[in-house]
Amino acid sequence: MTDHTMNISENNFEQCLKCTVCTVYCPVAAVKPEYPGPKQAGPDGERLRLKKPAFFDESLKYCLNCKRCEVACPHDVRIGDIIQSARIKYSTKKPGLREMMLANTDFMGTVATTMAPVVNASLGLKPVKAILDSVMKIDAHRTFPKYASQKFETWYHRHAEADQAKYAHHVSFFHGCYINYNYPQLGKDFVRVMNALGYGVHLLDREKCCGVALISNGLIDQARHQAEINLDSVRKSAAKGMSVIGASSTCVFTMRDEYPHLLGIDNADVRNSINLATRFIFSLIDSGKAKIAFRPDYKLHLAYHTACHMEKMGWAIYSIEALRMIPGVKLTVLPSQCCGIAGTYGFKKENYPTSQAIGSTLFRKIEEIKPDYVVTDCETCKWQIEMSTSVSVKHPISILADALDFDRTTALNLKT
Amino acid sequence: MNSNGESHFDVIIIGGGATGAGTARDCAMRGLKVLLVERHDFASGATGRNHGLLHSGARYAVTDHESAEECIKENMILRRIASHCVEENDGLFITLPEDDLAYQAKFVEACTAAGINAEVIDPALARSLEPSVNPELIGAVRVPDGSIDPFRLTTANIVDAKLHGAEVLTMHEITGFVIENGRMKGVKLLDHRTKRTKTIYSSITVNAGGIWGHNIAQLAGVTVNMFPAKGALLVFGHRVNNMIINRCRKPANADILVPGDLICVIGTTSSRIPFDECDNMHVTREEVDLLLSEGEKLAPSLRNTRILRAYAGVRPLVASDSDPSGRSISRGIVLLDHETRDGLAGFITITGGKLMTYRLMAEWCTDLVCRKLNSDRKCQTAEIALPGSRKEESQARKYYDIHGSAQGPKYSLDGVPQPSRDASATAVTSASQAETADKSAEWRHGSINAEINATDADSRALVCECEEVSVAEVEYAISNLHIDNLVNLRRRTRVGMGTCQGELCACRAAGQLAKAGRCARSAQDDLEKFLQERWKGMYPVAWGHTLSEAQFTSWIYEGVYGLPVIENK
Fold first, then answer.
1. What value of ipTM does the predicted structure carry?
2. Chain A residues touching B504 at Cβ < 8 A
3. What is the pLDDT of residue B443?
């Protein structure tokens, strides 16, 4: 791992010209006066912390790691990374039970899926919510995503795995926790679309949670451990010439960029093998490597929401263009802004008002437009928007799967 | 005192550097009626233009035993009386492969003889104590060096002198003396603000003008033969090191890297310059190149670190009286009683020495003043702490105590390592922006921070974001610390000393000064001068991000605010 003390100029912090545009684009600074904003918390604060760690300011926990500051920065300062690295290095607050529970998605998911009906029912009960709120400080307004009664992996092994070898091309699928434990249908949609395009879908040798929630909740050692396992699997896949595709923008972003920047794990050899589902699919079709046909009767008004990490990767264009391929879709691209949830951030009671204040203009806009669905690549944006508006949210892959003319597409790709 | 100059002082001290301020304090503490006059601002000469190194004396141990002994004694005194100006971070003397490791034994022996605790440590330990150090080092010695802020030190001496009744005039330049029958009776002053002259009388006049003391002595008709030696330094944008890094070899150019507040400083060079350059020194390209190439050898990461600016100070080297040619130079303290030396009664010059020995110089000088005034009051400046370093005064507020060492043993007054007080240094955890600004203010002002009233959102707002200086701190400085312009304010608070070099804070600070009773026109002139002064320091290192920053600053001030375009002269 990188020794933070050896290269103190990392994250380019001294490139900061103090223009303050990062703070202008910070969703938290706009609504929470207690948060000093990315310029102060990042490059300015870093100089103070290099003087004495006692200058570390616990208000850095209000940073939701959206990285919109980095997108705004004209001088390539990794402001979000500076802030998150400072939290990792200097924070004296130890993760509590709440942080362990929110961050350990694999453990919680494995336990919960085995008794999904009970867990789902009880997490929705008022007394349980009251206890979560008062004891665990998980805000009562929040609804935990429902757990599935069958994990995606189980479904895959029973119903899909055997068919995959017959395709001409192959990819690995990083399904992530949400698909595996909460919403296997999205994983099934991905397999369906990829199969139609002539691609077999395979699971990784071993997959652990990408670790984003562990990082933001301060469980760094565990995050490093899981990152090593995932990268090991990615390397095995890449050695077979198979890209690793994820549907969740945050999982993909974490494995590509947070591993080296925050966990100090070098992934340069396989970073480009890790790709996002919409980007991979759109590129296939755009380059003519695959063809796609849609149902003529599929007619919907969709509104695309750019998740923060999509903005950071600069990849929203791939999802937007993929949706625009569907003839019957009227697409409204919502103004790119943070919805406020930022993974586990918005679940914490102290962050709930901030979270909702950040998203409020987005929610109003959605209610004004009243699309049939909001579409986004991020599962936590989905929870936030569904909780805060009257509109349902879908992943672009699910939209493609619904709109797809499966038989015609399969035939088109067999010919080529 | 009225402007007719009818009042009479026991002693007038000329020069607002550390020595003059320290002498004013010492004299005032011994009950004398004191006036200090300074032509510009406190610490505007050599005092404010050096490394800010709390020498252990190790640098002089081999070549100048007497200076080394003085240094370690004063070092231990300053840790106690000026704790808010001092950072107890220790120093390393490293031997690189190109250096002679045999020098180390000689060095340690000389340190020990001078009473300096010099401990040979394993190069691996040195690398872990100070990760920025050149990893190729083959030897390391740990010594009780530290960092000291000369601006704060001088200000604290001034504040305490005033608390003991001293009067202080800044922006007052000596134009002549009143000398009658071989006795100096007073000084003629020009007030730079009003352009009016005045005469003030005293029993004794002390020349503490540093290199400018040469000219002051000339005005009095006596000769003090000094030689200005210029030393250039570079300021980096943030701390690369937390311990002082020196080369373990015969003192040479650019072989000390000192962390100071939020930056670090490499220096120095050494070259004789003519007197007429003392007031307008420029750092040359050759000096910058030398500082960088040598500095990288101490800490290789300096190569990639942004340089904020370059500056130069001038050492007052004094020719010994027996050899006015200047070939025999004394680096020690020079106290001249012009009554016995030149037959001019009532005039004393205190010069030579170094920042480290300012207090001892003041003590010697005040002892002589007291003898002449038949006072037997004893010096107490080694025992009584300066304002800002009195922890008992800050009971009303939380005292963060952030100056202590973060890494390893402390040194007690006799140089023996003491257990670290780490727990108190990191005990502060509650979160808010106001708190980091409050901690920064305490770092600068020590226990005096209790007088800075950052009580509401407006007063907690930051004027200077890089250095975290609040509106309340600026207001405090304007009301209490002799602020006439932005440069004065910078020396008291660090406004404009950070990465942006005034880009964001200069206009805000100018607004604060205008609000405090200056007219808008003069505030604008002041703003122009301040930005010119900042650019002068950036110019010798204007490449990379420093140049981008300067360009951005010019867009704001020349493009948006319409200030006149700065010309390079």
1. 0.90
2. 18, 20
3. 93
